[in-house]
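Practice problem: Pentraxin family member
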Amino acid sequence: DLYRKVFVFRKNPSDAYVVLRATLEQPLHNFTVCLRSYTDLSRPHSLFSYATKTQDNEILLFKPKPEEYRFYVGGKFVTFRVPEGRGDWEHVCASWESATGIAEFWLNGKPWPRKGLQKGYTVGATAAILLGQEQDSFGGGFDVYNSFSGELTDVYLWDTGLSPDKMRAAFLSLRLPPALLAWKSLSYEVKGDVVVKPRLRE
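Answer key — structure tokens:
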């Protein structure tokens, strides 16, 4: 249980990462991924990387620059332009629905205009799920200059699109529906220089 704890990625750039284990019964036709990050990086960095053997960017949350997030599904991406962070925690949720190809992006509890992405696609179930690095091959192929440095917490993955109420609940750290990956019951393995520490402030 990582409640009120964070992963601190101490080095910049870094070869460290955290492997997350989720049991996916079947491929994903809908999903929501949420996490909270705290960093002063201005270079590109990966936040959440989900790769299958056929597609290294099956699901990817990537921040190429301080005022932009990229959300990938099946190797294609949409870009969400955001105000440059003011040196504070940023909470992001991204959800996707195969039937409509609608991609939703929420930053700090507020929705951005929805975009279209990979209508009819299916996300593979046999996945390597990593925090802190961007996979260019299944479970590897890292570029340290896309690595994350800073603090990560409150990582979740659901096999549904969350309702607006639940998106806001995730931002506020309120009760959430059962998830494939849940911060409060996370199965993970640290690889390299990552330290689990209490959160400094709420």
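Discussion: The longest strand covers residues 30-38. Students who identified this feature from the tokens alone can consider the problem solved.
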